[in-house]
Amino acid sequence: MHRTLAAALTALAAAALAVGAALALVAVLETTPEQPNVPLVTFGRPGA
């Protein structure tokens, strides 16, 4: 019984840590400024 409780608490802590890490990653990605969408190479259209 004691090992089962320890395993359940460990799994719960691991899940909480994973959710926290995912939320932190989303928060960091939302705070970064958006980069302009400018192509590095452009090709002229033939006949234009």
From TrEMBL:
Protein name stated in the entry: SPW_0924 family protein
Organism of this sequence: Streptomyces lunalinharesii
